[in-house]
Specification:
- By secondary structure, the chain is an alpha+beta fold.
- Helices cover 39% and strands 23% of the residues.
- The strands form three sheets. A nine-stranded mixed beta sheet has the order 1-5-6-12-11-10-7-9-8, with helices on both faces.
- Helix 13 links the parallel strand 13 and strand 14.
């Protein structure tokens, strides 16, 4: 039987890898004072749509409930948490520091695209400062490092750098959105074609085409300052510089690049934005930024910032960077095999229980299979030892090492 396109079953080994990453990342989140929060998997469409732009609204998976309400699966986690923070938790002392791990859903027809994927992220709510922007970026770095990832960069930019450039050119709003979409999709051939048909000054065309290449260290800011003169973009450059210097104070400059071509695909961003990249994948492994107006769409206005890490993408990258990074070592596995009678069964139960109390994994043979079949099963499951309960003395049991076949009689405790 098939399942809908864009969905996956996770087999036991894949689940182990997922839980490993979840634990590694959430460990860092908790150490930084963030508390876990859980929101519903689906909500009223009009609530989730308040945080979605035109592109995201088209990608939301919607259906009707029995009362005729339009319901949608959450396409991201920030909007539900903004709703919660600005309503049920609006009177709590600020800042609010939340983290989450959960699945999100988007309807995407591109070949190979996932429609359900898992994200781990944080939201820092109630503070508008460059220090809070720097904290969540630093936390993204530390989360990726603790997962085992070594070679990556966090690119930081500012949504108002792009907004300022768009405000300064004299074209209709629809064309500006098309330019934004071309830059977002990194479709530079289309971008150049669109600009050739626009009544934009040559100098402005040249700068828009150059924007996606403005990536590097502090010299990028100096280069950009010489090429623009609108106040909004210049203010954005000053904020980027301040956050960059704060990340130096964290000692993380080796992971940070300035990228003035970043345009995130959510309309709620208002300030610093960032994305995480590696050489092993052509898509960002994480992304986030400042969203100061989203909470006000539900109730109280609360400046906020946050990010999300894509766990499926992170797992792919880790295995490409180091094939052994997600080969997890667990406790030894035992399989307890007994001759089929009541006395041996009770002793087998007792032995399995004692092994589990010691922190070991113990399976009890329940299938009445011949030993040869049990041995093949044990090899396929990575079992280290088979313990045989038979007519040995009450304080003795036979233990067989599955790989080598070595047998020994050991004391039963």
């Amino acid at each position: 039987m098939n399942i809908p396109r864009g969905l996956n079953d996770l087999l036991p080994e894949e689940v182990l890898k997922r839980r490993f990453l979840e634990n590694k990342i959430s460990q860092v989140f908790k150490e930084w004072g963030y508390q876990e929060i859980i929101t519903p998997t689906f909500e009223f469409y009009d609530m989730l749509a308040r945080g979605a732009g035109s592109i995201m609204k088209k990608e939301m998976i919607k259906f009707f409930d029995r009362e005729g309400n339009i319901i949608a699966l959450r396409p991201e986690m920030t909007t539900p948490i903004a709703r919660l923070a600005s309503t049920k938790m609006q009177h709590m002392p600020k800042p609010l520091r939340f983290y989450y791990i959960g699945n999100v859903f988007r309807y995407d027809n591109k070949v190979g695209s996932q429609r359900e994927f898992c994200q781990a992220g944080v939201e820092l709510i109630g503070i508008n400062s460059c220090k809070s922007d720097a904290e969540v970026i630093a936390l993204a770095v530390e989360g990726l490092k603790n997962s085992g990832l070594k070679k990556f960069f966090i690119d930081i930019g500012h949504i108002n750098f792009f907004n300022g450039v768009m405000q300064s050119i004299k074209v209709e709003e629809e064309r500006k959105q098309e330019i934004k979409k071309a830059i977002l999709n990194k479709d530079f051939v289309l971008l150049e074609k669109m600009l050739s048909f626009s009544d934009i000054k040559d100098k402005e065309k040249e700068f828009i085409l150059k924007m996606p290449t403005l990536r590097g260290e502090e010299e990028v800011l100096e280069e950009a300052e010489k090429m623009i003169n609108n106040k909004l973009s210049l203010t954005a450059l000053k904020e980027i510089k301040e956050v960059y210097n704060l990340l130096r104070d964290y000692g993380l400059e080796e992971y940070i690049l300035i990228d003035l071509g970043i345009i995130r695909d959510f309309d709620y961003y208002t300030g610093i934005i960032f994305e995480g990249y590696t050489d092993y994948l052509g898509f960002p492994v994480c992304g986030g930024g400042r969203y100061d107006n989203l909470c006000s769409k539900f109730s109280r206005d609360l400046p906020s910032t946050g990010f999300a890490i894509g766990l499926e993408r992170l797992a792919i990258i880790l295995e490409k960077e180091n094939a052994d990074s997600l080969k997890l070592e667990g406790p030894d596995k035992y399989l307890v095999y007994y001759q089929n009678n009541k006395i041996y069964f009770r002793k087998a139960l007792e032995i399995a229980g004692n092994l589990r109390k010691k922190g070991l994994i113990a399976e009890l043979e329940v299938g009445r299979r011949e030993f040869a079949e049990v041995l093949n099963y044990a090899r396929s499951k990575g079992v280290k030892y088979i313990v045989i309960v038979d007519d040995n003395p009450p304080d003795k049991i036979k233990r067989i090492e599955v790989t080598s076949g070595k047998e020994e009689i050991i004391n039963y405790e």
